[in-house]
Amino acid sequence: MYPELGLYIDGVWLRGEGRVAEPVINPATEQPIADLWHATDADLERALLAAKRSFAAWRKVSPYDRSRILRKAAEILRSRRDDVALTLTLEQGKILAESRGEVDAAVDIIEWAADEGRRAYGRVVAGRTSDIRQLVVPEPVGPAAAFTPWNFPATTPARKISTALAAGCPIIIKAAEETPGTCVEIVRAFDEAGLPAGVLNLVFGKPAYISEKLIGSPIIRKISFTGSVPVGKHLTRLAADGMKRVTMELGGHSPAIVFADADPVQAAKVLVGGKYRNAGQVCIAPSRFYVEKNIEDAFVSAFIAETKKLKLGDGTEPSSTMGPMANSRRLDAMDSFVGDPTRGGDILLGGARTGNRGYFFEPTIIHRPSDESRLMREEPFGPVAPVCPFDDFDEVISKANALPYGLAAYVFTSSTKTALAASDEIESGMVAVNSLSMTLTETPMGGVKDSGQGYEGGIEGIEGYLNRKFISLM
Ligand code: NAD
Questions:
Q1: What's the Cα-to-Cα distance from 42 to each of 133, 174, 205, 316, rounded to whole Å?
Q2: Ligand 1 centroid from CA 187, angstroms
Q3: Total domains present in the chain
């Protein structure tokens, strides 16, 4: 049911042999499901040397041949889709339908990267004299170190691994210790697809120790991290010492603005789907709901009615539509948002933990909390939804832009003029109007302000792993 875990270093799976182990916990039952081995210092050294050695050969493999291996890995992963989805649900908690969708998306991402590697073109710049040829040539930046979180254990590693490999960069990935099985399955697919030893390495352990060691090594030339803002800033500082390239996909607190000319019932339906997906543990989840005053009542009623339809339960139960939180830290965080003395407003639904085992928290709606409350200023990353009214365009844009985050934003309106004006004014890496459609494989994902730096996905993603060398020939 759940895969045997291991470290994958220089083409070899490593387990036990005196290494420290930590249990992996099923968040729906709080029961241990496997032992995860921590990499030793010698393991990390070995991974670094493998990445260095394999870079010389991998950068010379043609994009066409790299692409074939990536496509093969995608095919293997696709053939195991349901098993990997079950692994994902057992370790992370999200419902099986979401896990299956995530594995499908991971396959799609790997296939996209396979093709983007083949399309990583250079260019010819006209010389100032007829005897000169000027070339701009893409080159892989070098071995990458990547760190991925527990909320999307399939798509986040798939994106970092496949983009690095497509660009010609070896990669050492430290996936989240709380959700290691899915990444083990992804790495296994690459291994079986014939990836040369050393090009892909998977490690686990104490995050701070591993990131310091890898980022501090002169072998690593590129850092990619998805996770919280404080950790992202810390890793960026470490990277600065070695002038290493970084891609940072950090947190958000995404405003969802519903203007009076939108259909409040339809908007509520769509937004409830986005808010409670993965129990709210999604960096781009709509998480601050601003509704124009004259449709506030209609929106709130519809939002409550739609939220009440959610069926909280173990993600492996077909009837569940929302699973537990991924870890007990999120439960504590939800308690602290609800119990915050500066919170204000009224709890319209939920507000507490539920069940006698598992990390379950009720879908919660808080009406009119104060702008100063923690819920309105900090990323909730959970199933607590604050809903607030607004009077006019300028007021709501200024509220939307008031936080240091700038990842995603959502606008509901039937006016093209309002849609364009809001899209222009909101400080955010991504804006979706009248839907939740963003972070597709073929579109760039990235934040502004504290939400990050650089892009993943789209034609932009591979640029993070390429240098552009200028060559002038006379
Ligand atoms: P956290 O900030 O300690 O960890 C976030 C992730 O970063 C984890 O996967 C962790 O393993 C990793 N990490 C932590 N310290 C690290 C280090 N020094 N080097 C390398 N990796 C490190 O806290 P958490 O409790 O896991 O999550 C808390 C908050 O993180 C959430 O509330 C949310 O805001 C944010 N988060 C964001 C995303 C995202 O998709 N952007 C994903 C997960 C968590």
A1: 47, 15, 13, 38
A2: 21
A3: 2
